[in-house]
Design a protein that fits this description.
This protein is mainly α. Helices cover 84% and strands 0% of the residues. Helix 2 packs antiparallel against helix 3.
């Protein structure tokens, strides 16, 4: 289901670009169903961004803004996680290098 949400968001964007708003609406709605199970914040940010684009096109600016804020929150989570992952990898490398020197 996690990737299904992502693919539905991509389909929504594709139909939106073609001007097929009924199909864009269908896939946009499907993309946010159970979006909470999407633990990958890269995917979650794209889902919310596409949903924001859909609402902007149909003139629902309040909903577009809300989805854009959700997109930014997910995107910020991605950016905040990267330094943590880099620090964790650096610590592992340093520990490995120290271990190699001791041998």
């Amino acid at each position: 289901r996690k990737l299904t949400n992502f693919y539905e968001a991509l389909l929504s964007g594709e139909y939106l670009e073609r001007g097929q708003l009924d199909s864009a609406a269908y896939y946009s709605n499907m993309s946010v169903e159970n979006v909470g199970v999407v633990t990958n914040y890269n995917l979650r940010s794209i889902i919310h961004f596409r949903r924001s684009q859909y609402f902007e096109v149909i003139g629902k600016t309040d909903s577009a803004l809300h989805q854009y804020k959700l997109y930014m929150a997910a995107f910020d989570s991605v950016l905040n996680k990267r330094p943590y992952d880099q620090a964790r990898l650096q610590a592992a490398r340093e520990a490995e290098a120290t271990e190699m020197r001791l041998e």
